[in-house]
TrEMBL record:
CDD domains documented for this protein: AmyAc_euk_AmyA
Species, as recorded: Favolaschia claudopus
Taxonomic path: Eukaryota, Fungi, Dikarya, Basidiomycota, Agaricomycotina
Domain spans labelled Glycosyl hydrolase family 13 catalytic: 32-387
Gene3D superfamilies named in the record: Glycosidases, Golgi alpha-mannosidase II
Cofactor(s) in the UniProt record: Ca(2+)
Record-annotated site: Transition state stabilizer: D316
Keywords noted in UniProt: Calcium, Carbohydrate metabolism, Disulfide bond, Glycoprotein, Glycosidase, Hydrolase, Metal-binding, Signal
Protein name: alpha-amylase
Family to which the UniProt record says this protein belongs: Belongs to the glycosyl hydrolase 13 family.
């Protein structure tokens, strides 16, 4: 894409009221919110917020609107909020209250627990005033019940003929996955018959109206693979906005099948999530081959990797910190989700080191963190700033990454003028082997590590040495001529130049100091030479 086109699409995206396309979303960075758990309105009284008991905690749309600075200050350019439609309103179910928003009753109504139509419009307006996008989660596949014989008059589709008859899902049978009822006998999720032409037509009208009424810019589609694939193109066309589907599956081929003109614009990148866990979690298999394998397969199989949703956490999987205790593992894996291809999606609370395991423990109220400016928050801010800067000034959003080298403890990849060097050694030191690869830059090029604010000069034969003297921190290099990003000082001046090309410079950022501040007792000296 030419710079003028980049400029044009940015202008278009900042002035758009709704109907943002995949091209526009590709440039964005998403912060995912559980509406009930993100923020309380000032002065709100919290009666009960017991995570293990799946109670309401009291968050709503107004509270999100009043706390958008926290998200925007970290450089995010979109929010994804919980489903906005009416949920089950009966007595507490076997699995608690529908605080998460996924237990749809009448989808033609809003969820009054989260606010009024005016409140949702006010949130949408404020998001747009800030130049950000609004993504809304939608549940199309099913409604919720507390019985296998629901009273259908409570739903938008008011007759049994609009639903598939009850059967328990057999996950080895695709038809069963798409027609039987998710959930269990205590909380069954009656499966809407999306083959029915009245259902198709009513859902089309409903989504078109919802998107227009609240100026929604994009949809996250719950349980997308539980609806037959050929339902989606017409639905997405009626929505008229970017659609990102949930296809909960670690296998690239299975997930890739749901992206494209015969399905959806985008899917959440579960295969990448699994590969990053395998490669970076500590303790873990430290299996860098799993990431290399993912990269190879994804290049061949996905229709467009640049619009996939890259995440490390969400409401359905354990917090990263529950699975991996070393903070360097998070910093390195997070850097991959921002600087490789795809749209970064950060689940609220990742930046606060929340550590609950799977549902319901991974849905902590964010206010318990005091919205602290943590090291992870600062790292995301830096990564968002660099990513948006590259997208603003080059065709970076559509460029594909290229692996320069990898070994069992690290990977170096280039995307445009950004080279990321990531490692899974974690905080303690380990002996590592060197790897060699072709440099994208000529000898003498001065590069800046935008995380550590250190300078690296490319030596003869393209050699650059990255020393892990304080543990396995991610290193992200850009040529120092790429000025104006505001990272490490706008002009990049004032940094020392190494007298010996290839040596790092002692000066470093406060962020780097914070990143290596844990756990000091485990730190040993280590040096890893990355040849390029
Ligand atoms: C798959 O599931 C469908 C729907 O429940 C069922 O009709 C069909 O018999 C199943 N096929 C097999 C091979 O079990
Ligand atoms: C590492 O990942 C590769 C590629 O996915 C896989 O074949 C291999 O079995 C994995 N090794 C371990 C130890 O998990
Ligand atoms: C994982 O989550 C569970 C439940 O929230 C908790 O008991 C456990 O301590 C967590 N583990 C870690 C390593 O944080
Ligand atoms: C948040 O602030 C409260 C009140 O000052 C304090 O008791 C609590 O420890 C703080 N929590 C965190 C995670 O900073
Ligand atoms: C977080 O702290 C860093 C380092 O002190 C600072 O540069 C940044 O502005 C802070 N961010 C916010 C939102 O306060
Ligand atoms: C990217 O461009 C937008 C729109 O011109 C601008 O508001 C934003 O500050 C730029 N961000 C960076 C990091 O360059
Ligand atoms: C690294 O390797 C050297 C030589 O094999 C050995 O002497 C040293 O103890 C090793 N250090 C660590 C931290 O494993």
């Amino acid at each position: 894409m030419l710079p003028s086109l980049v400029f044009f699409s940015l202008l278009a995206s900042f002035s758009a009221v709704f109907a943002a396309t995949a091209e526009q979303w590709r440039t964005r960075s998403i912060y995912q919110i559980i509406t009930d758990r993100y923020a309380l309105e000032p002065g709100a009284v919290v009666n009960e917020c017991v995570i293990s008991q799946q109670t309401w905690c009291g968050g709503n749309w107004n509270a999100i609107r009043k706390r958008l600075d926290y998200i925007q200050d970290a450089g995010f350019t979109a929010i994804w909020i919980s489903p906005v439609n009416q949920n089950y309103q009966g007595p507490r179910s076997a699995y608690g209250d529908p605080y998460h928003g996924y237990w749809i009753a009448d989808i033609s109504q809003l969820n009054e627990k989260f606010g009024t139509a005016e409140d949702l419009k006010a949130l949408s307006d404020e998001v747009h005033r800030r130049g950000m996008y609004l993504m809304v989660d939608v549940v199309i596949n099913n409604v919720m019940s507390t019985s296998l014989t629901p009273d259908y008059s409570k739903y938008m589709f008011k007759d049994a003929k609009y639903y598939h008859p009850y059967c328990a899902v057999d996950f080895s049978n695709t038809t069963s996955e798409q027609q039987c009822w998710l959930g269990d006998k205590q909380v069954p999720l009656p499966d809407v018959n999306t083959e029915n032409s009245e259902v198709k037509s009513k859902y089309s009208d409903w989504i078109s109206d919802l998107v227009k009424t609240y100026s929604i810019d994009g949809l996250r589609i719950d349980a997308a693979k539980h609806v037959r694939k050929d339902f989606w193109p017409a639905f997405a066309k009626s929505a008229g906005v970017f659609c990102m589907g949930e296809v909960f599956d670690p296998v690239v081929a299975n997930v890739a099948d749901w992206q494209g003109p015969d399905a959806l614009d985008s899917v959440l990148n579960y295969p990448l999530y699994n590969a990053l866990l395998a490669a970076f979690a500590l303790p873990g298999p430290q299996n860098m081959s799993a990431l290399m394998d993912y990269i190879e397969q994804s290049k061949k199989t996905f229709k467009d990797t640049t619009v996939l949703g890259n995440f490390l956490e969400n409401q359905d999987v354990a917090r990263w910190h529950n699975l991996s205790v070393d903070p360097q593992s998070l910093y390195n894996a997070m850097t991959y989700t921002f600087l490789s291809d795809g749209v970064p999606v950060v689940y609220y609370g990742l930046e606060q080191g929340f550590s609950g395991n799977a549902d319901p423990y991974n849905r902590e109220p964010l206010w318990s963190s005091n919205y602290t400016n943590t090291t992870s928050y600062q790292l995301m801010t830096t990564l968002n700033k660099l990513r948006t800067f590259m997208i603003n000034t080059t065709d970076w959003a559509t460029q594909k990454p290229n692996v320069l080298a990898s070994n069992k403890n690290g990977i170096a990849f280039q995307k445009g003028e950004v080279v990321s060097i990531l490692t899974n050694i974690g905080s303690p030191a380990q002996n590592l082997t060197n790897i060699a690869f072709q440099s994208p830059w000529p000898q003498g090029t001065v590069t800046i590590d935008v995380i550590g604010c250190r300078q690296f000069v490319v030596a003869s034969a393209g050699y650059v040495e990255v020393e892990y003297t304080k543990g396995g921190v991610p290193v992200v290099l850009i040529p120092s001529t790429l000025q104006g990003s505001g990272l490490c000082g706008t002009t990049m001046e004032g940094l020392h130049t190494g007298t010996v090309p290839g040596q790092t410079v002692a000066q470093s950022s406060a962020l780097l100091s914070a990143m290596v501040a844990w756990p000091l007792s485990l730190l040993l000296m280590v040096s890893l030479g990355w040849r390029w």
